[in-house]
Amino acid sequence: MKGVVATHFKEYVGTKLGPTIWPGVMKATKLASDVFPPSADIPDEAVVNVVVAAANTAGKPVEDVLHEFGIFEMTKLFDVYAHLIVQKSAKDFLLTAHDKIRLAVNKDFQGGGDEASCPFLKKRIPPLLEVKETSVPNRLQLFYRSPRKMCAFNVGIIEAVGAHYKNKIGITHKSCMNKGDAVCEYDLVIMPA
Prior knowledge:
Elements: H1 3-17, H2 21-29, H3 44-58, H4 62-80, H5 90-108, E1 128-133, E2 139-145, H6 151-164, E3 168-175, E4 184-191
Antiparallel strand pairs: 1-2, 2-4, 3-4
Helix pairs in contact: 1-4, 2-3, 3-4, 4-6
């Protein structure tokens, strides 16, 4: 996870779970600092620890926190990167935006110089996220694989994309890494506004 997303998670915790939750997360995870350089790569284990601590401190299931954060994060990214979002439909966005948003985030936050101060720096492979068209109009297949297994985060993102474009997106989770499958596969049906 990029440091900018970790900063957004901290903001999500404060605004959606309550202002008293983040200090509990800091204590539970023994974080020395909650300042994340935007382009820093935060190791998977640190991400999982912070998410679990937030859920436990708030008394919510981890899946609910991930789902809510997916909605929060995508809504925030639509605001921050509105100038880069040229897709006119939820379908086009889902088919193309992942690579463009990732490229923009990396470009905007390269080499600020403060990365060396982050205790979480570590090289890692980004998650697999692939969206394919099907022969059925307004139907897509999405494939996701990551050691973090944050499936509920993806569902929140997909719902936020639908809301942004004023579409409801039906989501069927056909296979799931959290149930032992090698990859999560989703069938998406984009319903007209």
